[in-house]
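Hello,

Following up on my earlier ticket. Below are the two sequence lines again, exactly as submitted.
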Amino acid sequence: MTRPGEDEIIEKYFAPLSGPAGLGLADDAAAFAPPPGQDLVVTKDMLCAGVHFFADDPPGAIARKALRVNLSDLAAKGAEPLGFLLGLALPDDWTPDWLAAFAAGLGEDAAAYRCPLIGGDTVKSPGALTLSITALGSVPAGLRLTRSRVAENDILYVSGTIGDAVLGLGLRGLPPPAWGLELSAESQVFLRERYLLPQPRLTLRAALRASAHAAMDISDGLAGDLAKMLRLSGLTAEIGEVPFSAAAQEALRAEDGLIAALLTGGDDYEILAAVPPDMAASFERAAAAAQVPVRRIGVARRGTTPPVFHDTAGRAIQLKSLSYGHF
Amino acid sequence: MTRPGEDEIIEKYFAPLSGPAGLGLADDAAAFAPPPGQDLVVTKDMLCAGVHFFADDPPGAIARKALRVNLSDLAAKGAEPLGFLLGLALPDDWTPDWLAAFAAGLGEDAAAYRCPLIGGDTVKSPGALTLSITALGSVPAGLRLTRSRVAENDILYVSGTIGDAVLGLGLRGLPPPAWGLELSAESQVFLRERYLLPQPRLTLRAALRASAHAAMDISDGLAGDLAKMLRLSGLTAEIGEVPFSAAAQEALRAEDGLIAALLTGGDDYEILAAVPPDMAASFERAAAAAQVPVRRIGVARRGTTPPVFHDTAGRAIQLKSLSYGHF
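Thanks for your patience. The regenerated structure is below:
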């Protein structure tokens, strides 16, 4: 089997995905005039096979996840995507079919999220497949959200549902976990999909920009990310009901000890936002208009302890650690 | 030995390197107002241990090379650095000492080239150390150089000397190559250094912007990169004398067959530029003022064949392939 060289890889698989700023990817660098009156937002996530995804995941899904986790960062900043750069370190055993499927998935999402490929680098990896995506976005000047401006009494919201992805990851275990065997086939598919393909909440950006004091995307588990956000503002919170999907609730009925994993597992890519009380109603209206479900989970209070979560019976949940640690 | 977690790594090693746009790296994304009247230039290079550098190279040098190869891309575009993002996939056996030395080297170059760290991602690599740097720069609006606008009769220039890095890499071979044993100790040190630490030609940017039709940095070997640049404009060239360092000339005296490696080996990170004849004198003056040696190597001519190189006796050199292929 003949495999194309680097220039052919770029020309055949990636140039069709490129936007005007990428100059057909015939150059080493992308260039563009930033939109007038806008600030730039730049984010970068790195993903390794065996750590952030499985090497045998569908190649299109690997590509889409890599792009989406970056888009999720842009969403949390209230930013509109401008384009992305792809760093791709391919292991020795890559095939043209694999790469074609990878590029097809990437192109689908680049089009769907209006975020064209504008540059990057393709190299040989001595080990596992490694991806690095840098996404650029823009926000009206001065309006970028940060994590660090939560105020006392702000209402804490999360989008979507929490903990699905860590359950989807759990279902990949061999042998499958006992609780997994009790789930309906439909719930299993739903949870696996939530691990495989996060949904960046880009449509929430207008609501966030208009109403939120602070926001971040939840990538390392709700408990840890919430603690991190509140700590930056010297705050804590009592957390009430966290939104769980029907599938996650099914899993919790099978094994109630899973609650800690749901709260601390990673890969949710939902939005956590702090909204002042007088903006709460308009935030909820704007989120509904954007068709993104959001749920109040608590209120920011003065304090330096990590936020406390409660089970449905109102008892505080003991968490051994707040989030998944990579190191 | 206790190793810090991801948040501590960022706080301890990388936050001190961050510029204002990086917000102390406490957030997921960098934000900044692009300089008014400037276009943005964005470039990304990925480097893997065992492919682009040796895992046991000094950690500070690994960091500096990763940044410099990106700065070299900015230099070729005539761009001024604004900042960079670092993607770092650390293998299992990393140590705090290694990371401290890595960050120190990175910080030294970030300061020297006025290119602060503004964001990134640190993850666990299941295999080799992998780095991905995205560098952002700016050029006055509309003035960005590309590779693709070479005109017939343009004079082709290269900066510095060609082929040193591939010789420096050769000297790392075990056993050392025969020609290596004939080199002076001084030449060996020089060539190894040229492989380890490229010199991004950022000071050439004013000269390039004022006078050049097209430019690129030479990363995959002069022969291949020149062919690539000329092909984009439907041109070719007869190439005369290529500048070689005293050390490279010493190696050529020991083994004249090395000439092909010098012309096709990678990692030069010198600038290749096409300058119209009526701008040649001012280009040379501006380069001299910037203290960057530049040499005319030929003239662009109509044609579709790859450019032909000649040895000192004026004979055409047969090259088996034009550049180092990663795939």
